[in-house]
């Protein structure tokens, strides 16, 4: 992609380069060159815009196939993740695969991920030879190669702690160190014509247990604590303003300030576009009316899975004059909270006021109740007293003589 002169210098036929100014030209693959799509533009600004459009289109097309496989409460062979059976003759064998946990997974040490390994190693390896499993850059399991005559693992189970994983994408790597005593000589002929030292078989598998889920999604408190766009992700903090007006940018700046204060170190900031197909993720800040259609539909589907009570309406028990904190059973609406009872009516004459959550005939005084300022002040005062008393007891326990 470029001007006709630039395309000609790259080896494109001048006739094809000239024809590509009106419409893209496709050159089929040949013996000495791959298939080529030729786009000729005379304006560098237009070239940059076309490059951005092609990158965005490739991201939308390739986001789904390149996304790691979602695994939960199942066992899958490693061949499903692209790990093939192969022989290795060198000193350090390394392979890996990506898997994803649900985004609302609660990660803790209540279970483990089982890796059943089918492999073999040759005899005569050094004492330092071993096999290790690395999860998200952290070595979590080690299997020594302690048999001098070699060994075959048909279904060797290796437990990986669940706390090493995180919600979303995870990277699992298998490393096998297979040094020998003769490797110190560094003989190239021995390395080229040497016998296989490690064999990775196709019978290996991985099992992820049933996972606990968080009570809310997304968990912004976890995001504020980590100081990153996603749990455990490296790189800048990505914030996508839905609009570039003063109010939205002010809210985005306030959010970044809160994250920077809560994080161990100040994270780098990157402003990105509100692209729902971007697999890297971002924090979207803005009003609901400013969201793009694709992102608005995604937010609406998430809200539909987590219903919340209607603001301003407090459900109450049937036949009771006091509001209840529990929601009514599905498909059953108390009479005191029905739409007919909640519809305001014009009173014929002045009288006692009623509320949507009061049964007919039960009137309440229209006199204004005292505000919550005094009870709130009392609660703050008693909380301060409790904190002071706890600190005083701790200080006395530290300064008291011990016998």
TrEMBL record:
**Does the entry feature the keyword Calcium, yes or no?**
no
From the UniProt record, give one GO term of the biological process aspect. Answer: cellulose biosynthetic process
Q: Where is the segment annotated Disordered?
A: 305-369
Q: What is its main location?
A: membrane
Sorted keywords for this record are:
c-di-GMP, Cell inner membrane, Cell membrane, Cellulose biosynthesis, Membrane
Ranges of biased composition (kind: Low complexity) = 337-363
Cellular localization per UniProt = Cell inner membrane
- GO CC terms in record: plasma membrane
Which Gene3D superfamilies does UniProt cross-reference here?
Galactose-binding domain-like
* UniProt pathway annotation: Glycan metabolism; bacterial cellulose biosynthesis
Q: Which family does it belong to?
A: Belongs to the AcsB/BcsB family.
Q: How does it assemble?
A: Tightly associated with the cellulose synthase catalytic subunit.
Q: What does this protein do?
A: Binds the cellulose synthase activator, bis-(3'-5') cyclic diguanylic acid (c-di-GMP).
What this protein is called in its record is Cyclic di-GMP-binding protein
């Amino acid at each position: 992609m470029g001007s006709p002169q630039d395309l000609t210098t790259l080896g494109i036929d001048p006739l094809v380069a000239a024809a590509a100014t009106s419409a893209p030209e496709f050159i089929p693959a040949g013996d000495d060159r791959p298939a080529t799509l030729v786009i000729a533009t005379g304006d560098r600004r237009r070239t940059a815009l076309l490059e951005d459009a092609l990158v965005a289109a490739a991201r939308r097309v390739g986001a789904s196939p390149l996304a790691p496989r979602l695994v939960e409460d199942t066992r899958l062979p490693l061949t499903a993740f692209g790990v093939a059976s192969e022989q290795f003759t060198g000193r350090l064998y390394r392979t890996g695969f990506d898997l994803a946990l649900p985004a609302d997974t609660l990660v803790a040490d209540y279970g483990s991920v089982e890796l059943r390994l089918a492999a073999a190693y040759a005899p005569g390896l050094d004492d330092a030879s071993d096999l290790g499993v690395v999860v998200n850059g952290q070595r979590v399991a080690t299997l020594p190669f302690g048999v001098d005559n070699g060994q075959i693992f048909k279904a060797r189970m290796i437990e990986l702690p669940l706390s090493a994983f995180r919600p979303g994408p995870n990277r699992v790597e298998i490393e096998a160190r297979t040094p020998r005593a003769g490797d110190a000589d560094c003989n190239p002929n021995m390395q080229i014509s040497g016998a296989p030292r490690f064999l990775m078989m196709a019978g290996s598998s991985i099992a992820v247990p049933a996972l606990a889920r968080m009570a809310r999604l997304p968990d912004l408190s976890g995001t504020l604590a980590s100081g990153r766009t996603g749990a455990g992700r490296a790189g800048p903090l990505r914030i996508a303003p839905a609009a570039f007006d003063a109010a939205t940018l002010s809210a985005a700046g306030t959010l970044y300030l809160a994250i920077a204060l809560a994080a161990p170190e100040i994270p780098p900031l990157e402003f990105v576009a509100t692209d729902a197909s971007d697999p890297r993720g971002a924090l979207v800040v803005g009003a609901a009316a400013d969201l793009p259609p694709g992102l608005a539909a995604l937010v609406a589907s998430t809200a539909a899975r987590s219903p919340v009570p209607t603001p301003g309406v407090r459900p109450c028990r049937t036949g009771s004059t006091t509001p209840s904190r529990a929601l009514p059973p599905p498909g059953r609406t108390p009479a005191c909270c029905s739409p007919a009872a909640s519809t305001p009516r014009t009173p014929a004459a002045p009288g006692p006021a009623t509320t949507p959550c009061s049964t007919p005939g039960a009137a309440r005084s229209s006199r204004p109740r005292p505000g919550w300022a005094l009870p709130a002040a009392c609660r703050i005062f008693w909380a301060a007293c409790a904190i002071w008393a706890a600190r005083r007891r701790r200080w006395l326990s530290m300064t008291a003589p011990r016998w």
